[in-house]
Amino acid sequence: MGDYRGLNVRRDRGGCCPPMDLMRSEAMQLVRIIVPVESAHLTLSYLGDLGLFQFKDLNADKSPFQRTYANQIKRCGEMARKLRLFREQMAKAGIAHSEMAMTQTRIDFDEMEIKLGELEAELIEVNSNNEKLQRSYNELLEYMLVLKKAGEFFYSAQSSATAQHREIEARQIGDGSIDSPLLLEQEMLTDPSKQVKLGFVSGLVPKEKAMAFERILFRATRGNMYLRQAAVDDPVIDPISGEKIAKNVFVVFYSGERAKTKILKICEAFGANRYPFTDDIGKQMQMISEVSGKITELKTTIDLGMLHRDNILKNISYQFEQWNNLVRTEKAIYHTLNMLSLDVTKKCLVAEGWSPVFATSQIQDALQRATYDSNSQVGSIFQVLHTKESPPTYFQTNKFTSAFQEIVDAYGIAKYQEANPGVYTIITFPFLFAVMFGDWGHGMCLLLATLMLIFREKKLSSQKLGDIMEMMFGGRYVIMMMALFSIYTGLIYNEFFSVPFEMFGRSAYACRDPSCRDATTDGLVKVREAYPFGVDPKWHGSRTELPFLNSLKMKMSILLGVAQMNLGIILSYFNAKFFSNSLNTWYQFIPQLIFLNSLFGYLSLLIIVKWCTGSQADLYHVMIYMFLSPTDDLGENQLFPGQKTLQLVLLLLALISVPWMLFPKPILLRKQHNERHQGQSYTVIHNTEESLEIEEDHDSHDHEEFEFSEVFVHQLIHTIEFVLGAVSNTASYLRLWALSLAHSELSSVFYEKVLLLAWGFNNIAILIIGIVVFVCATIGVLLVMETLSAFLHALRLHWVEFQNKFYEGDGYKFAPFSFALLADEED
Hints:
Essential component of the vacuolar proton pump (V-ATPase), a multimeric enzyme that catalyzes the translocation of protons across the membranes. Required for assembly and activity of the V-ATPase. It is found in: Membrane. Pfam families: V_ATPase_I. By secondary structure, this protein is of the alpha+beta class. Helix content is about 60%, strand content about 10%. It is built from 25 helices and 13 strands. It is extended, with a radius of gyration of 43 Å.
């Protein structure tokens, strides 16, 4: 691998091809920056604002806790936790972040840490008090329900007992009978001292547990209890869990302390909240009055507490964005400072990293400003290093080109300064999509949907969208290009929701006589010049429509495929020329170009000649017998004079190009390796440490063992892959024909079998149903499923058939230290 600094110089002079923003990645340089400790923080802050420097971790052997600024990162993490707490509390209170903080002055980091601690303590205290008050308030609400419902139980029981007592007295005045109560029962009813005193427990139990609660009580007391329950009309907030639960008020009557102990344990097990109650009606009224007063007081206190909490959160919301940005940037700065190594004197920090060459003056300006603003006595040192390490890949993209570049990057990041497929993807990707999706009606629907996203992009970019919507919004310009090309190919196919129009003039065909109104092309004659643009509308609906369009689209797919594969091979030449790799030029580019065009380039030529001459030659027969019987006469399949001789020459060239790709390159690589080692047997003795380091690095790259067998096997695999791939990749482009045909036929089926069929019933209801079904089928199948299908097929053609001809994609992306990227990652 050569010195990348020399490569940058060559590119700056123009290189082998004109400079393009996206054709080659930006020229990068490895930089060392020596920064005084007192200005290090401000320096990284300015570099983070600039966003054009990627730091290397010089402390990779240290754990996060052993690094210099571990405590500061811990402080930032603690402040980030407090801010998350504030965000959660504001979300619960329905308070939005305010943008006012963006206009405020910068605050001190230490002061903010103290301020956040005070606000957290105050907020936690307010929340704790509010929780206690809310719990007491909920308990009092439950107590009020118990007092009312249980009071109704006792009132009804007392009324029943009074009525029974009067009945007994009335019976005693009359004659005795067999229904009269026994003597003991009479004594108990008339003499209060002989009545059994029953205890009772009152409270609330969850309604869903009421039946099980009653059964367990009955079994535990062996039936020696009496339970009364009444459902509460509305769910109540449980004081312990804070959730709304449907509950029943209950009163359990029992006799004996053992029964009481059992009942209390069962109440605890079922989560029943017990409340004291008295059977004295006067005391009941007094308790209701007291509880009602407490509820009113607590409600007022809670409202004041919530108002105080909301005021705290509103004050926080005004500065939340500023605090959040400051904590995020400070944490990023200290995390990056931990990647820097301390100088021996511990007065300077040493940073190494990658930056674009064009950013040199901007970085130096940022270093000077940091030195001046931090009042440092010593300035920072900016030093460009020579290295054999492969730099990161950096493309300057905008909102239009970024989505196309992401399509390429999903396959693999470009190697440093290799030809970028993204330049051609901007045109070829939407065009190949449109070849499969050709219908200008569907294309207009896609375009309208995309224009809505583009016109509202400022509003939508600041909102949080769903996963699918986010993906569509990010690729809005890709979809726009796909829609525009679909309109273009739809005009060529002359299909508007599968319906042809005479947009560019009248059809070249007409009926031979008045009786051929419904006839096919057998009854049509050519009466004027050919239709000026696209497919003649008379072809649609004829018996020969499918064979004609099949032949047209199949041959067009082969032409497009061969053209794009040739473009890929030509780009491999520019890569070899740019990297000064003559072996790839002579033993990869040339034989590949010869092999592909000897077979499929020749097939493309035959297709064009057949179209131009109107010949009836069978191209299948020509291509098959070119291999099976190359010396036989072509007969009626001959398209031009000298075709047989040309076929023999092309076949011979194709056969020669295979060993041309396979053998010379491994042999020459071994020869170069041996010459390089032989020339380094005797070298000049260097005295400086830097020279020794360079030699060690040189040894690590150049004195590796050269395994000829591995190189040869690799070249063999590459040759076989290309030879077989030339056939399979060309066949793969036939998906353009297949998908285009499927889209056209589906569109035709929906139009004829749904819309026209509904129209033929002469019924408005059926017509409305038909229109609804047609619209849903068009949107669901043709505009969603077919769009996704064509997109994926176009993606495969670019990744596999096009990019494998020249694109290595084994680089790594430039990841600069940038505050703007931090904000995007958080969003």
